[in-house]
UniProtKB/TrEMBL annotation:
GO terms for cellular component: endoplasmic reticulum; membrane. InterPro entries: Glyco_transf_61_cat, Glycosyltransferase_61. It comes from the Eukaryota. It is found in: Membrane. PANTHER family: GLYCOSYLTRANSFERASE, PROTEIN O-LINKED-MANNOSE BETA-1,4-N-ACETYLGLUCOSAMINYLTRANSFERASE 2. Residues 399-479 form the Glycosyltransferase 61 catalytic domain. Coiled coil: none annotated. GO terms for biological process: protein O-linked glycosylation via mannose. GO terms for molecular function: protein O-acetylglucosaminyltransferase activity. Pfam families: Glyco_transf_61. This is Glycosyltransferase 61 catalytic domain-containing protein. It is a single-pass membrane protein.
Length: 560
């Protein structure tokens, strides 16, 4: 995501962290693998109590270290000792390969929230994901909060039952049981039949049902995955250096229940975002996953498994079994993000690396990418807190009038839209307001613009407004400043959390407009889809919208 200069700085940080992580892990485990800087794990919960635990130890043979230390490791051990003395982590970039080793590293969970789990050393054989551990299953989260059968969701009792995971989806093995299946008995100098999938994998367990929408893929799945990934690694983003992150890179994304078309949306933003923000990610889909299943379906002496080094596993049905997503806001990403926020593990600019990756790809210039950071610096200089009283006409105000951009995304060409006269009156009122204040106004129909034009506009928008709908997904590209906001117009009494939660998650204010009134956090209405919600007679009273915008830009506290 960075130019070569910034990337090299990030690499230095990663190598430094990698060296620290290696030092920490090697003090826990006598057989610590050499970690490449690509696969650092900052949280080193690979704890020694897994070996000391007295649960079900009778059948676990733990040979003395000399017996298990294979000859192939001798050279690496020597170089590791050298590393320890010369402190040069570049000498140890060669990753550990499970498939030539004599031992299987145990599965650990670095972080978990309903629907989102970051594993180290996860195994897959014949379509079942295996947690290999000498810990009892009760020490792990309930698998219903990790995974599902990957079927499309319907709101029927039969379907809810059919999505409940079984031992065929995810199961537990002790190390002895794993060796009994896949070989690797050190007493017999037998190598295992486990093949390593190195590096960092995002494993998405969802069917196309919600993958093939711009909002659900980019603003929900990617937002959730990135928040969880950043938080799990306690990543720090440096806004003054092109928003480079200290989080490790992602090497592959696997859509286990979707074909190649299934994760793509019709306008093409999903592929655009994934390739722009993560240009080196390799994508595997259902067919590829089926290959891995078929190749590990044999029994006896040909029983095999794949070993995944580091996996962020996500499952929509499992997220809905969590309290936040299931009963508060129906946002799978909320489970990931709020878990990390509660632990204070997300830093302010956590989304910025993805946002910038996409916008730089779209051709947006650096100065515009910095709008949020610059406003933040100005706010600090003015000692202004968000929502504090700021006089926008005062010299040196937070954002100059000519830099304020109001973007109205019109849906008049789509099925759900405003009453035609109300739309016309709204455009007139916005035009008057912007002319008198010196602000820029854009009234756009997204489908008439190229992807680049849409993204470039979002990248400089201060306040985005429009009727509830997919076009508002571009809010994830708005620069976050103390006055940024999204105004979403609903059919009166209608409400959904899609854009409301997402706007707030990114640090902006959201207003739900019902004609001549509005709601804003913490005054959120109940989710409702009244008659008329999807229709073409949605009313809006323009003076209400104008007042919201003027108050927001003047820094007046909402509702006061
Ligand atoms: C592999 O999985 C299928 C079901 O998906 C099952 O019928 C079969 O028995 C399994 N094979 C082995 C060796 O476990
Ligand atoms: C919208 O609000 C205006 C101003 O209060 C009112 O005159 C109009 O009747 C309202 N429209 C609807 C459909 O409620």
């Amino acid at each position: 995501m960075g130019v070569s200069r910034s990337r090299s700085l990030r690499d230095v940080i990663l190598i430094f962290l990698g060296a620290m992580a290696m030092h920490l892990t090697s003090s826990f485990l006598w057989s610590s693998p050499d970690r490449s800087p690509e696969s650092i794990i900052v949280k080193t919960s690979v704890s020694s109590h897994f070996i000391q635990d007295d649960y079900d130890q009778s059948d676990i043979v733990i040979p003395p270290a000399e017996v298990m230390r294979p000859v192939v490791n001798a050279q690496r051990e020597a170089s590791k000792e050298r590393d320890a003395t010369v402190q040069n982590p570049l000498l140890s970039v060669e990753p550990e390969k499970i498939d030539v080793a004599y031992e299987l590293p145990e599965t650990t969970i670095v972080a978990h929230a309903p629907g989102w789990t970051l594993f180290r050393n996860l195994y897959m054989s014949n379509g079942t994901l295996f947690i290999v551990s000498s810990e009892p299953p009760s020490r792990f989260p309930d698998i219903r909060l990790i995974t599902s059968t990957g079927l499309a969701a319907e709101n029927t009792p039969e379907n809810i039952a059919a999505r409940m995971p079984t031992a065929q989806d995810m199961d537990f093995l002790t190390p002895a049981q794993a060796r009994a299946r896949w070989g690797g008995n050190p007493d017999r100098w037998e190598r295992n039949r486990v093949w390593s999938v190195e590096g960092n994998t995002y494993l998405f367990n969802d069917p196309p049902q919600f993958l093939n929408h711009y909002y659900h893929f980019c603003a929900e799945l990617l937002v959730g995955a990135w928040a969880f990934w950043q938080g799990a690694f306690n990543a720090v983003v440096d806004p003054s250096n092109a928003a480079v992150t200290t989080a490790p890179p992602v090497h592959r994304a696997i859509f286990a229940h979707s074909d190649a078309i299934g994760w793509r949306d019709r306008p093409g933003f999903n592929a655009y975002f994934l390739r722009a923000a993560f240009p080196s990610v390799t994508v595997e889909v259902e067919d590829d996953w089926e290959d891995r299943i078929t190749l590990t379906s044999a029994t006896g002496v040909h029983a095999r498994a794949f070993h995944f080094d580091t996996v962020l596993f996500s499952d929509r049905s499992a997220a809905f079994r969590g309290v936040i997503c299931g009963s508060q806001n129906q946002r799978t990403a909320a489970e990931a993000l709020e878990y990390m926020q509660k632990g204070a593990r997300l830093t302010k600019w956590w989304w910025e690396p993805v946002r910038r990756g996409v916008l730089r790809f779209a051709g947006v210039q650096e100065a515009e990418l910095d709008i949020g950071v610059k406003a933040d610096e100005a706010a600090a200089a003015l000692n202004a807190r968000p929502f504090a009283q700021i006089d926008s006409t005062r010299p040196g105000a937070l954002i100059k009038a000519q830099d304020i951009v109001i973007t109205y995304i019109s849906r008049q060409g789509a099925r759900r839209h405003l009453i035609d006269e109300d739309h016309a009156a709204l455009v007139l009122a916005l035009t008057d307001m912007c002319a008198s204040k010196g602000w820029e106004l854009n009234v756009v129909q997204a489908e008439r613009l190229s992807k680049e034009q849409q993204l470039a506009l979002a990248a400089r928008t201060t306040i985005m407004l429009g009727v509830h709908g997919n076009g508002l997904t571009h809010l994830i590209m708005i620069p976050v400043t103390p006055i940024s906001a999204v105004i979403e117009i609903f059919y009166p009494t209608g409400f959904a959390h899609d854009y409301e939660w997402t706007t707030r998650a990114l640090g902006m204010r959201h207003y739900a407009v019902w004609n001549d009134t509005y709601h804003t956090y913490p005054d959120a209405p109940n989710v409702a889809y009244p008659e008329g919600f999807q229709g073409v007679q949605i009313p809006v009273y323009p003076p209400n919208v104008v007042q919201i915008i003027e108050d927001r830009i003047a820094g007046r506290v909402p509702g006061h």
